[in-house]
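Service request form, structural biology core

Requester: graduate student, group of Dr. S.
Request type: structure prediction, single chain
Budget code: on file
Notes: please return the result as structure tokens.

Sequence provided:
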Amino acid sequence: MALRVTLIAHRVMSGDTWGRDLLQSLTQIGGIVTSFLLELLIYPVIFEIWRSWQHRKRFTAIA
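Core staff response, request fulfilled:
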């Protein structure tokens, strides 16, 4: 098992066509996962923090 992983890692890092294609696929999958996590988990939290800050700022200006 360890030998197989070592050989695969060597082929990926050597820059041949197979390794380049695999690395490109992994990069695309990583980008999709990162975009998914940002849009569904991080951006809504940032928006709610910003909105509550704006709401609090508006009511302190009135009072």
